[in-house]
Amino acid sequence: MKREIHIAGQPENKIGLEKLRVGVLGMGFMGGTHTQAWQRGKATFNWPIDVELVALFDTDEDTRDLHANRFDFQRVTGDWREVCEADDIDVVSICTPNFTHWEMAEAAAKSGKTHLVRKTNGDIDGGCAGNGVGGAGTWCKNHAWV
């Protein structure tokens, strides 16, 4: 049996945003992967929303400068909290070493951001519990594992 795949036109935008404003924390291999996925998502998946790369955090200044120009980020910073707390960012991709995920995810959640983490926090019991979003043993409503 042969399957036909058909995509008719632009899907309906059900989230009410015209543009998704993205911050990326960490620009190692996974940060580059997330960034490229954000850039190509609209064309690849026919998203009904534009994506804007707003802010990039990395601890290394040369890395920040290189990737800001390479991927056309609006700004760069050496302080990840600036990205998590920024009013002009809707979603944060957390692509830093595993031991940093919890604190960054918690800060993003407290600021009302959806946050994507590249690996689970296996050593953290209760997900984002205790951050004011969920209770003990619950997962944060803004948290997505990728």
Structure explained in plain terms:
The protein is built from four helices and six strands; from the N terminus they run βαβαβαβαββ. The relative contact order is 0.15. With 146 residues, the protein is an alpha/beta fold. It is globular and about 45 Å long. Strands 3-2-1-4-5-6 form a six-stranded parallel sheet, with helices on both faces.
- Gap between N and C termini: 33 Å
Unreliable stretches (pLDDT < 50, length at least 5) are 121-146
Helical fraction equals 25-40%
What's the total helix number?
Answer: 4
SSE ordering: EHEHEHEHEE
The helix-and-strand class reads alpha/beta
Number-wise, the strands total 6
**Rounded average pLDDT:** 78
Query: What spatial order of strands do you see in the largest sheet?
Result: 3-2-1-4-5-6
Shape: globular
Per DSSP, what share of the residues sits in E-state strands of 2 or more residues? 15-25%
Main beta-sheet strand count, sense and barrel state: 6 strands, parallel
Rg, nearest Å: 16 Å
Quick overview of this protein structure:
The chain is of the alpha/beta class and 146 residues long. The protein is 30% helix and 20% strand.
Topology:
Elements: E1 19-25, H1 29-45, E2 50-57, H2 61-71, E3 75-77, H3 80-85, E4 91-94, H4 101-110, E5 114-117, E6 143-145
Parallel strand pairs: 1-2, 1-4, 2-3, 4-5, 5-6
Keywords summarizing the entry:
4 helices; six-stranded parallel beta sheet; globular; 146 residues; alpha/beta
